[in-house]
Design brief:
The protein is mostly helical and 82 residues long. Helices cover 50% and strands 0% of the residues. The protein has helices at 2-10, 15-30, 52-59, 66-73.
Length: 82
């Protein structure tokens, strides 16, 4: 999985890259992107709100770039002072 994180690190560090990742996550998690730029999942029976996947999706709404996102969600990350 480290290779996947390195790939993200080499991609754009602008907010549009993080927003695009949010859209990709929603598509993978529920098969579609919500309207009007809203980020989230509709089926909370399938995706618990305290799951890492939902936390990651949520983070795409408030981090500024991929490096900040990776700081929060790299394997073994305990310190979330972003």
């Amino acid at each position: 999985m480290a290779g996947g994180f390195e790939f993200l690190r080499t991609r754009s560090n602008s907010s549009w890259g993080v927003e695009a990742l949010g859209s990709i996550m929603m598509t993978l998690m529920q098969g579609y992107v919500k309207d009007d730029g809203v980020v989230g999942v509709d089926n909370l029976d399938r995706w618990r709100t305290d799951s890492r996947a939902v936390e990651f999706l949520s983070a795409t709404t408030y981090v500024n770039d991929m490096n900040q996102l990776l700081k929060w969600f790299r394997p073994g990350a305990e310190d979330k002072d972003c």
